[in-house]
Design a protein that fits this description.
By secondary structure, this protein is an alpha/beta fold. About 35% of the residues lie in helices and about 25% in strands. The protein contains 12 helices and 20 strands. The chain has a 5-stranded mixed β-sheet with strand order 6-7-8-12-9, with helices on one face. A 5-stranded mixed β-sheet has the order 17-16-18-19-20, with helices on both faces. A two-stranded antiparallel sheet has the order 1-2. Strand 19 and strand 20 form a beta hairpin. The chain starts with a strand and ends with a helix. GO terms for molecular function: methyltransferase activity. Its EC number is 2.1.1.195. Keywords: Cobalamin biosynthesis, Methyltransferase, S-adenosyl-L-methionine, Transferase. It catalyses: Co-precorrin-5B + S-adenosyl-L-methionine = Co-precorrin-6A + S-adenosyl-L-homocysteine.
Length: about 375
């Protein structure tokens, strides 16, 4: 792997996710058990298939268990977790075949529904869990089990500077990463990359585009609605910016497909949906539910929710699913108003979905949308 990338003419250092660090610490610990000697460096494969070699910190072992740590290096895109030691203690379980993965000190625990892990589980996301399990299985074979405990001294304090508590992840940081590599990129460069993608689509002859705020929206668009992959562009959190670029480039039709937890912010007129800029999700739900005449008891329950998926359970319980259509219509109105006094005229439609219930609402029927976009 190239250690550096160039962004806006600057040489920036790549880093590694907490998931890669947890995997490497686990492999180092397991190697010490199997070889009965101190491990100073360890080589692992990231989720994207790149081999990396990392220094091992604070190694210790005995015949059946070992502990090792890897220091989190975020490169030049470092976040709050940069510099933390990500530890793994591995214990062999020779009389079983299961591989158990859990979090200890400094690793958050899920307390709200709607996240990648179930309530009660350690906040070790699916991709890091899979990478840890695959590396362990490769080393111990099919006839032995192991217990893996990931812990991060100082993680609980560092987590206060993250978004975890708002998501209902308490007690520490999350072990994250879908590729295993942190590629430094400024927001300006990210926006420029989206503009390039839009321009390429336009130059291929398209005048309509599907915008999604993330991979979940992309997946729902393709798998749930049958939308063509080549017309879906990930706008990330830059809703207003990307819509203005769409219009500037010359597109005349947009379909926004996104999870309720992200697009609900747009219903209140928020056009930059990153958590650092805004978080009026629950407030927007409460305001619109109140306008529908929802009882105070219900509004108070929704007010305690940390995610829109948790609120969805209450909304269903009280029979106020009509809120989703109201929000979809408001998202359409707010985004079309943003572009109203510029040319060309852009028509925007919206599809909302949730984690548990899937499709929630749209500004046109699904049949019409699928016919238009197939």
């Amino acid at each position: 792997m190239e250690e550096y990338v160039y962004v806006d003419g600057k040489k920036l250092k790549r880093g590694f996710t907490t998931g890669t660090c947890a995997t490497a610490a686990t492999v180092a610990a397991l190697n010490m058990i199997l070889q009965q000697e101190i491990e100073e460096k360890v080589t692992v494969k990231t989720a994207s298939g790149v081999q990396v070699t990392m220094d091992v910190h604070k190694p210790s072992f005995d015949e059946q268990s070992a502990t090792a740590a890897i220091q989190k290096d975020g490169g030049d895109d470092a976040d709050a977790t940069h510099g933390l030691l990500i530890f793994s203690t591995v214990t062999l379980l020779p009389h079983q075949t299961e591989i158990e993965i859990d979090g200890g000190e400094g690793v958050g625990r899920v307390t709200e529904v709607g996240l990648a892990n179930a309530v009660g589980m350690a906040a070790i996301n699916p991709t890091p869990r899979r990478m840890i399990e695959e590396h362990v299985r490769d080393l111990i074979g099919p006839d032995c089990g192991a217990k893996v405990l990931i812990f991060v001294p100082g993680g609980e304090e560092v987590a206060k500077a993250t978004y975890n508590s708002r998501l209902g992840i308490l007690g520490g940081i999350s072990i994250l990463g879908t590729t295993g590599i942190v590629n430094p990129m400024s927001e300006d460069s990210w926006k420029a990359a989206i503009t390039v993608e839009l321009s390429m689509l336009y130059n291929k002859g398209y005048r309509s585009v599907v915008l999604s705020p993330g991979k979940y929206g992309e997946a729902f668009g393709m798998d749930g609605l049958g939308l063509p992959k080549e017309q879906i562009v990930n706008m990330s959190n830059f809703v207003g910016h990307v819509l203005k670029e769409v219009q500037r480039i010359g597109f005349t039709k947009v379909l926004m497909v996104g999870h309720m937890g992200k697009l609900v912010k747009v219903a209140s007129g928020t056009m930059s949906t990153h958590s650092k800029d805004s978080d009026g999700r629950i407030d927007t739900l409460i305001a619109n539910l109140a306008l529908m005449g929802a009882p105070l008891e219900m509004l108070q329950k929704v007010n305690t929710c940390l995610t829109t998926d948790a609120a969805a359970t209450i909304i269903k319980e009280y029979g106020y699913e009509g809120i989703y259509q109201i929000l979809a219509d408001k998202i359409k109105a707010k985004t079309e108003r943003l572009l109203k006094y510029r040319q060309p005229a852009v028509t925007i439609d919206v599809v909302l979905f949730g984690t548990e219930d899937g499709y929630l609402a749209s500004t046109k029927s699904l049949a019409e949308i699928q016919e238009e976009w197939s």
